[in-house]
Amino acid sequence: MQDTRPKHPVPPGTCDCHMHVYDPAYPLSPTAIGAAPPGLLRDYLKVRVRLGIARSVVVQPTAYGADNSCTLAAVDAMGASARGVAMVTGDEPDGELERLSLAGIRGFRFRTFPGGVLPWENLASLAARAQEYDWFTDIEIDGRTLPEHEAAITRLPGKLVIDHIGKFLEPMPLEHPAVAALMRLVGGGRTYVKISSPYDSSRSGPPDYADLAPLVSLLVRSAPERLIWASNWPHSALAEGQRPDDAAWLDLMSEWMPEDVRRKMFVDTPAALFGF
């Protein structure tokens, strides 16, 4: 486990907008894509203190499918400083969505990669139902396919959050049609982008992920008020020796964006989006 602290302290109220909790007390879902990695809440809380983070958003991992019990328990344990993003199939009754909302859920996850449980055919109707609870749609998609899905995504109601800097799975030139599709979504005024999980797309790697800097710079210029930052702890897609230094990732934001944008991304935008 990394034990470094950020060189650049974060402002009070900083929110980690995407992290996961794994606990062997909860059974794996039949749709899980592998064994759950180490990711106990008590270990994350140590990371939170070390980084100076005040708030967290627990995102339901694929390990537990649409059984959100582990995520809800973590949100409850952190109290007012936490919110959650659920995974649902779209077949849940309204009473279940209300229960999740009352427990701190503020959005639902639409993942097109293995382990996702919400099919395309249920997405639009669920997004419409979710507006009663002021939920956003959290989209984790192969960013290279955005041009073919842009119209369907644009038709979704409410706020949208695009995961992991677009999750293009490789560095993208800014003139690429997939980047253009992302920027059109952002230009619509209700799409947020999560600055997280750079290792999904970078080839140059840590600590500076230099090949992603141009895309982040474009997002900073285009929509500084709709960026949110996240650790993606415990980096479940990576082997233990490959997991990045969370403090270094946090510090990189000081190089990628001016101080006023950092404050929006760390504090103001998450506070409004997640209802802190």
Query: Would you tell me the overall average pLDDT?
Result: 96
| Share of helix, binned | 25-40%
- The largest sheet has its strands arranged as 1-2-3-4-5-6-7-8
Cα end-to-end separation: 29 Å
**CATH homologous superfamily grouping:** Metal-dependent hydrolases
Structural class based on helices, strands and sheet pairing: alpha/beta
Give the low-confidence spans: none
Order of helices and strands: EHEHEHEHEHEHEHEHH
Give a quick summary of the entry:
This protein has helices spanning about 40-50, 70-80, 95-100, 120-130, 145-155, 175-185, 215-220, 245-255, 260-275, and strands spanning about 15-20, 55-60, 80-85, 105-110, 135-140, 160, 190-195, 225-230. The chain is α/β, with parallel strands linked by helices.
Write structural notes for this entry.
The chain is an alpha/beta fold and 276 residues long. It has one domain (15-274): Metal-dependent hydrolases (TIM Barrel, Alpha-Beta Barrel), CATH 3.20.20.140. Helices cover 36% and strands 14% of the residues. The protein has nine helices and eight strands. The chain has an eight-stranded parallel sheet with strand order 1-2-3-4-5-6-7-8. The two termini are 29 Å apart.
